[in-house]
Design brief:
Distance between the termini of chain A: 38 Å
Largest interface: A-B, 75 and 75 residues
Strand order of the largest sheet of chain A: 1-2
CATH topology of the largest domain in chain A: Arc Repressor Mutant, subunit A
Number of domains of chain A: 2
Oligomer: homodimer
Structural class of chain A: mainly alpha
Number of strands of chain A: 2
Order of helices and strands of chain A: HHHHEEHHH
Number of helices of chain A: 7
CATH architecture of the largest domain in chain A: Orthogonal Bundle
Largest sheet of chain A: 2 strands, antiparallel
Shape of chain A: globular
Helix content of chain A: 55-70%
Strand content of chain A: 5-15%
DNA sequence: TCTGATTATCTTAGTAACTAAGATATCATC
DNA sequence: GATGATATCTTAGTTACTAAGATAATCAGA
């Protein structure tokens, strides 16, 4: 990525205004995505939290309830409820770890998850097409940005937790 | 923006893989930001929903409870509770519209909101600095992308709502 | 190999945010 | 002024969530 900034006195006021605008737009887009998640979840007879947890399960390998609790910030008790609902809906199965029988793996039922993906493809057809028109270099920049944005959010959360109350 | 794609047969498999990766990263960043919002809200003695609503209030002009309900998808009853909490915490004031006395404007108390912004600036110091290093052209691309992403989420939500159950 | 400490998940009791439905008050129209 | 529509609030009831503890398996040390 080329992060050139000729002006050594720091970003200009105009530049700063754009950055704040970007922050606002990212937030707005996130809010809309969250709203979409809520509508989708209710269509599937689940909750927003359930759907987010299901996403984490499909992303990772051999995800356990404990890992879900850590990643989401929910208590293990809440996660039990979440996992109950997702399992009852048929999107995952609880599989006991044979090595450590305390643990439970949350095994995604892929053909059911593909149903959800199909919905997303239908409702996001135009967006996926738009994304396809980005050049490799542009995609590279966006990927890198999304990565940094994720890391920034992680670090900000850590920093916030460490601040004295 | 330059959205060139020489290959008329559509994006390559590699290109598609990158797009999916981008989607996943955006979702992950989104989830982390949501987590941050939760931690921040609890630090402020509020809820995540309250903080999101407060953000909407500070963005718009003369926001009413009804508008909040529409934008968030919550019921007006829930919004009453949200507004009660934000008001009790001192971040907004209810101001009756003198023209239409049924309506209530949610007036942000700026010096209190600046306290929240100060926290965000502290915890996001590194990220803000990183953003400052992006060139104008790059920022332009990112802004445009965030815009499109927002619009895409709006359209996807509409499309999803319209799908037969 | 027994004992105690740790870890992973689940259970239970209680809280509070949310929904749905309706009440209240104001505005607009005839 | 009567009727219908609109904006917010109220009420009753549901349920996802937290906090604390129970259960059960594993690990570490003597």
């Amino acid at each position: 990525m080329s992060v050139k900034n000729e002006d050594l006195s720091g970003p200009s006021a105009d530049h700063l205004a754009r950055i704040e605008q970007l922050e606002r737009k990212i937030r707005a887009a996130n809010a809309q995505r969250t709203l979409y998640g809520g509508v989708l979840a209710s269509k599937l007879g689940m909750h927003q939290t359930d759907l987010e947890c299901l996403f984490i399960i499909t992303l990772g390998d051999k995800v356990t309830p404990g890992m879900l609790a850590q990643e989401t910030g929910l208590t293990t008790g809440a996660i039990t409820g979440v996992v109950d609902r997702i399992e009852r809906a048929g999107y995952i199965r609880r599989v006991r770890d044979t090595n450590d029988r305390r643990r439970v793996f949350l095994e995604p039922v892929m053909h059911r998850i593909d149903e959800i993906r199909a919905i997303n493809r239908r409702t996001n057809r135009a967006w996926i097409e738009e994304l396809g028109r980005y050049s490799e270099a542009e995609l590279e920049l966006l990927l890198d940005f999304a990565d940094r944005n994720y890391e920034a959010a992680v670090n900000a959360t850590i920093a916030l937790r460490q601040e004295a109350d």
